[in-house]
Design goal:
By secondary structure, this protein is of the alpha+beta class. The protein has 8 helices and 38 strands. A hairpin with a 2-residue loop joins strand 22 and strand 23. The chain starts with 17 loop residues before the first helix and ends with a helix.
Amino acid sequence: MCHLHRSCVLVIEDGFSSAFVAAHETGHVLGMEHDGEANDCEDDVELGSIMSPRVQATFHRYHWSRCSWRELHQYLQTYDCLRDDPFNHDWPALPQLPGFQYSMDQQCRFDFGPGYSLCTAYTTLEPCKQLWCSAYNNPFYCKTKKGPPLDGTKCGPGRHCFKGYCMRLTPDMLRQDGGWGTWSGVRFRTRRCDNPAPANGGRTCFGNSYEFQLCSQEECPPLTDFREDQCKVWNPFFEHEGMKHHWLPYQHPDPDERCSLFCQSKETAAVVSMNRMVHDGTPCSYSDAHSVCVRGECEHVGCDGQIASDQQVDRCGVCGGDNSSCKIIKGNFTRSTKKAGYLKILEIPKGARHLLIQEFRETPHILAMKNQETGHLFLNDEDELPDSRVLIEKGVVWEYINNEEQESIQTTGPLKYGVLLMVSVLMRESNVTVSYTYIIQDRLWSSLESNLLQEDAIFYEWALKKWSHCSKPCGGGKQYTRFGCRRKADGKMVHRMFCSNINKPRAISRNCNSNTCSSPRWVTGEWEDCSASCGQTGWRRRWVSCQQVTSTGQEEKEKKQQRSVHSKLCGEDRPEGKQTCNRFPCPAAWRAGPWTPCSVSCGNGTQERQVACSSPEGLVQNCSEPRPITNRSCLAPPCSGQRCRGDRSVFCRMEVLSRYCSIPGYRQMCCKSCNEINSSNSSNPSNSSNPDNFSNVSTTNPPTTNIRGQQNHFVPRMPPFRERTQNKRIQQLLNERRRKDLLRRSDGSREGRTDRKQGRL
């Protein structure tokens, strides 16, 4: 919706019913899907839902489905571009009913174009059911878009169309604007737009349908998680894949889904939706302890406890703070492993935020975390090598990453309990070195009695990383050193923030590319092949560029390179990059047209085609190749030898069916009518011009021989038609004749030859 180049639709205006197409496409822009596709609203399609895959809504039968409502509310809160009104819409007030302004004739012109009006050729008992229209030059051909006239259209003296019926209007049918009813409840209250309810296109109520106030804002007891309690309730009831589970809280990665209850199995790590919203007042996210879910939507609450407040905590948790009271604790810890089991490394205090713990190098040991207040070893309490995962422990989200046995643990906090970092020792006589960093308030740090080591300034150092590129390609330039932050423990380059407290060395410069710059010159490539072999359209091209020779800066080798520079630096005229080629007349060649259909529909016949010599002068003698043939024999299916004894159907006399005479089965059934049509065509030849492009070749049509006794043997063959007639009886007869014709074709050819022999005798 809020994408600059995608938040638009293109709808062709095709009458008043186009409003439903515009509403349908606008629904897509707002995030709605087709009803019945990827949702469970296929039953709304036949009821005229606007988001149906094929829009079938009409003015007396349309609605938004429950899936459209759900999908709109799912994405509506993310459309920030809709939060302001960018213009003042001083639109004129709409009439009480839209049909008051448009007659049925005007609506026909909107639907089908100029020249259309209400169809009066056929009387209808209910003119408001469907709007039928016809053109002035064809009043008996009526069309409809299967929709009724607009509500309010006049359909008789004192009567108007309303919801598909012609009736007298009453006050309750006219437009009515909505008004709010009384509020209900106190802490959480709702109201309905029913005082009165909007009707017949009236405006709905402005404002929210519910209000809420925060209550019991005291901090919850420590080590409680409201979302975790809601998942635990389902342990004895909810089964997944045929078994019961211990359900743990799960925070959905999509912020729009965090007010829906998702739980994760402790046994299989499967994430399952419980198909319900979380309780009102549940925090939306573990990273935001103030915003809460209300009726399935996340309502923003500031750190001062006020709804829609902009107050936020700083990096160490001070509401409205400026990070001035934050203390960054960094350090590293190295311990030697002398015995198997869990080895304590360091303690992280309650209230710490933005905690990051990393191993320096790959080790066979496993990092583990323990809740100091409950004594629960909540991370990696098993000896096997764990996988990377995200888990929630008493309202705190922890992310554990195991990348090729090099582990890291991080959380944004804040920690609601002190934790103890431990190492599960799998190999004796080895060292474990970890780095840690977190942020905490000064007042919390000063009250702690901790022996955690502060960051050693010499643990990281600035080191030469590379030389910069030379400032000039020739004529003498400068290069400067680029420094990076390096960890002394393993010599690995790390982020420069680790060296932020160490003075960075001054950059060292050196000369480079001291060779003299050469004068730019034009460089050309090879000519490409000509685009044509003859005629007047041939061109060929080549690459042209202004180049300057430079060196790599290595004087002992003096490697030369070329680089492209602006064409203005090359003083000479630019060589041409395009020229004509192969501009001579093309040799003449014969061109042959398509073969005509066989001259007979059965037996032996001939075919013809047009042949022309294509040359600039258009003369035949310029073609050196022999002239292709223009006539050839053709063999049609054997003749059946049956005589015409008249038409077998009364429909044969219909002129509209005469085009089916080319079909053998139809011709046998309607032989008399088809022969009369052929006789009239042969006596009145068409004067239409030959559509063939070979204008310099004269052709004549062969004479048509019409012998009374051989009418069925010599019929001009027409291209086969595969069309279907809309008359079911005619189509049935055609299909039956076509099947019989295929069965008699082989026997008919043999009988035909016998008849011809007897005729000669």
